[in-house]
Amino acid sequence: MARVVVVGGGYGGLASAARLAKLGHEVTLLEATDTLGGALGTESEAGYTWDAAATATLLPAVIRDLFRKSGRPVERELDLVPLDVIREHRFVDGTSVRLPGGTRGAQLAAFDELGPGLGQAWVDHVASYADDWEVLRRGYFEVPWDRDRLPKEVTARLHSRETLHKRLRRSFRDDRLALVAGHPFVAAGHDLRNVPAWAGLHAYLEQRFDAWTITGGMARLATALEARLATRGVTVLRPARALDLVVREGRVAAVGTELGEVAADVVVVAIDPRRLPALAPYVERTMPAIPPVVSHLGLDGDVPDVPHELVLHGDPMLVVRPGGTAPPGGTAWTVHGRGRLAEDLLRALARHRLDVREHVVARVDRSPRQLVDEWGGSPLGVLWQGRATVHQRLGPDTPIPGVYTAGAHATPGAGLPYVGLSAALVAQAVGPA
Questions:
Q1: Residues of the chain with pLDDT under 70
Q2: b/e burial code for range 172-204 (CB count within 10 A of at least 16 → b)
Q3: 81-86 contacts: CB < 8 A, separation 24 or more?
Q4: In this predicted structure, what is the pLDDT of residue 333?
């Protein structure tokens, strides 16, 4: 049995702690704030509650595997629900498309409504990622990787010079389809000219596995995992901000905190590693992906009906997410903004004929800096700066013996599916007690 200390109580830290405790290790989790969950938390005001960040996830099998391998199946804890429409895209020319998930045929029909032949162009593009997914799943996403001895087929993809920008230009004559395919990365603050082409398999995952949400809000995932930690006997210290790793005789020996040192045989860093001086030199070439400007809106009266996620393309680009909880007669919206935000988000929203200014009874605004400070780092992880970014991230292991990394800043990247996979990779690398 190893003494494992997990630094960070976000999704990556919670998932790592649950898995390692089930493997028989003595686990202590350190969280800098009073609450667990990180970006999986909520915002509340005047009777309204909003998901703080993610409102859906891909690859539900990652969550199912986490719960199954740490105790009770997820079906006994949470209600995972597939979305009929993943998101609606509205373009500057007045056209729009609703993107269904889960089936090739439904997506083909949706894009054919946008224009003749566009459905086939879309499904052909998505199908082009099938081999990428199978190769990277077996050699990168689901197994701890050896950077120096990668299988040739994995190396061919991770080292390719092709960018997503180039691939989309080659795949589509209609810019609207490129906007749909590139949206998840633009929304996360990336420049498509710096994103490797293989990362575009996000569209393949949406089509093949659908997008899923949790009844009652995504924060329930954090609540369920917190209960799982209690069941597995994990010690949770909060608030207990980690200051640095303590390295003795060439390997980690403890984590230095505001409360003193916490002895460890193994440390899992589930925060931005740049916040710990011992790890910072190893990730000095990385930059965080900056969150968007966010407004959580509590609305009353009759407001427009919008799908789970509505993307309003243009500059600025706006993303509207209805959801959360509201008092009787109310509606909760969250609006994200990126680009030239020279005006209030509600005024920009009104220019898209979604004028809800007279219906606002509660509002919580968050700037990118506020979000990063509140969560102790960016939940969007590392900014794509070309193909080398894959090797600049740490995880699951690190150059310091006994230290592993999980979370949005670690391998294989940001987003709930990948963060969940990072915890699974750490559990494999550490192994059973």
A1: none
A2: beeebbbbbbbbbbbbbbbebebbbbbbbbbbb
A3: 81/212, 81/213, 81/214, 81/215, 82/210, 82/211, 82/212, 83/56, 83/210, 83/211, 83/212, 83/213, 83/308, 85/307, 85/308, 86/56, 86/206, 86/210, 86/211, 86/308, 86/309
A4: 98
Sign of the alpha-carbon dihedral angle for 226, 228, 230, 234: negative
In this prediction the pTM is 0.96
131-184 pLDDT per residue, tens: 999 999 999 999 999 988 999 999 999 999 999 999 999 999 999 999 999 999
CB 279 within 8 A of CB 243: no
Distance CA 26, CA 44 (A): 35
3-state secondary structure the chain: CCEEEEECCEHHHHHHHHHHHHCCCEEEEECCCCCCEHHHCEEEECCEEEECCCCCECCHHHHHHHHHCCCCCHHHCCCEEECCEEEEEECCCCCEEEEECCCHHHHHHHHHHHCCCHHHHHHHHHHCCHHHHHHHHHHHHCCCCCCCCCCHHHHHHHCCCCEHHHHHHHHCCCHHHHHHHHHHHHHCCCCHHHCEHHHHHHHHHHHHHCCEEECCCCHHHHHHHHHHHHHCCCEEECCCCEEEEEEECCEEEEEEECCEEEECCEEEECCCHHHCCCCHHHHCCCCECCCCEEEEEEEECCCCCCCCCEEECCCCEEEEEECCECCCCEEEEEEEEECCCCCCHHHHHHCCCCCCHHHEEEEEEECHHHHHHHHCCCCCCECCCCCCHHHHCECCECCCCCEEECCCCECCCCCHHHHHHHHHHHHHHHCCC
Q: Token digits for 167?
A: 């691939």
Looking at residue 341, what is its pLDDT? Answer: 86
Neighbours of 65 (CB within 10 A): 17
Closest to 324 measured CA to CA, from 312, 333, 315, 316: 333
Q: Which residues contact 400 (CB under 8 A, 6 or more apart)?
A: 245, 247, 251, 252, 278, 279
